[in-house]
Amino acid sequence: MKRVPPPIDAHAHIDADIGKADLRALGAFVFAVTRSLDEYAKVESRRDGRVIWGVGVHPGLVGVQKKFEVNRFRELVQGTLLVGEIGLDGASRVPLSDQIQTFRSVLEILQETPRLVSVHSNGAQLHVLRELHRTPVEGVILHWWTGSPELTTEAVRLGCYFSLPPALMSSDILGLIPNSRLLTETDHPFGDRRTPGKKAPGQVAEVEQRLGKLMNKSPLEAREQIWRNFRRLVDQVGVRDFLGNEWKATLDHLD
Fold first, then answer.
1. I need a surface site. Which of 16, 119, 235, 243 has the fewest CB within 10 A?
2. What is the model's pLDDT at position 166?
3. pTM of the predicted model over 0.70
4. Whether pLDDT at 131 is above 80
């Protein structure tokens, strides 16, 4: 019988103090994004099998933006293949000019040190794409993207991937994104509040079901597509060596 890989959650927030057994019980592979350099410092030494901890600086948090240090970020990013959550937020109390300065600094470092990058763009999609034009990097995953069809087309042209939460996006936008650029996410505990049943990182069954209909596949076939997309992204960025053994083994068993 063909072995189906566990689900993959490309954007979730997890408490830094969670135990290994609780992470294992999630039954999924998860990108655990952080919102500040201090938060990432608490988890940078963790090795949790199916969880990748990302170093982030959230655009919506005033204190986080004020405390951002370029050299400290440059040091921290050496130890992980994931950067997130970063980006721009049009509703933030942080002046957009300050957010852009931080975002540019991060992107400039990522040009030197390619990583997978989970990007926040709420209310600032045009500005995010402008910065990606100005400082292009590999490995961009637009988290919970809600840009216009025109901006979506441009994001696809730029090579971006898109991680979809349970709320998904409008069909007009989804129809413009190649199936090969799609990933699943929960954005737990913020993006799955209205999801029926258990709410936890890795609970992407609703997304898989809806993507399956979009792709004319079963939910499990959609999951396999997501994993193939992830494998392609990892190889494009050149970060497979950073993956743990379970991640590598799962990629190796894909068709």
1. 235
2. 86
3. yes
4. yes
